[in-house]
């Protein structure tokens, strides 16, 4: 049976009609999360101070500018003195990372939009990005990502502050929204 040639001409157009597949990132070893489209999240433009408490007690501080609109999400990370470290942009099904300084090999900047989504996107949107072995539990200002009943990430909202904890990595991230400060 021959395929009619007009149908062959339509194939490229039909292939373009399917929804783009967003990339997956690892929120912990073996725990994949499929990034959600920017349109599923709340609109925002916010500057935050982000303090990472690393294993062993060392702390690193960065300034993050987050912008989310229906068409794209972007995160610009800077040093406290204003030097841009990197920019992560999620647009459609594409994540672009522009590093202005060398990024350590064990840090995947694409994880940062995933953590923002985990902490701030509507729960149902986050659940759509989780694999079958992960569960999202929300209790008031506390949101937990569980794998087999064990907490992997916890986000606790306290007004204009947010705390992210990963007990397995011994990592705590304290986030303070700068615009809300007097």
Keywords:
single chain; 182 residues; alpha+beta; outer membrane lipoprotein receptor (LolB), chain A; 10-stranded antiparallel β-sheet; 15% helix; 47% strand
Outline:
globular
CATH class: Mainly Beta
Number of domains: 1
| C-alpha Rg (nearest Å) | 19 Å
Secondary structure: elements and pairs:
Blueprint: H1 5-15, E1 24-28, E2 31-34, E3 44-53, E4 59-69, E5 72-78, E6 84-91, E7 94-99, H2 111-120, H3 123-129, E8 134-139, E9 142-147, E10 150-158, E11 161-166, E12 171-177
Antiparallel strand pairs: 1-2, 3-4, 3-12, 4-5, 5-6, 6-7, 8-9, 9-10, 10-11, 11-12
Could you explain the architecture of this structure?
With 182 residues, the protein is of the alpha+beta class. The chain has one domain: outer membrane lipoprotein receptor (LolB), chain A, CATH 2.50.20. It has helices at 5-15, 111-120, 123-129, and strands spanning 24-28, 31-34, 44-53, 59-69, 72-78, 84-91, 94-99, 134-139, 142-147, 150-158, 161-166, 171-177. The strands form 2 sheets. Strands 7-6-5-4-3-12-11-10-9-8 form a 10-stranded antiparallel beta sheet, covered by helices on one side. A hairpin with a 4-residue loop joins strand 11 and strand 12. The protein is globular. 20% of the residues are buried. Residues 3-18 have low confidence and may be disordered.
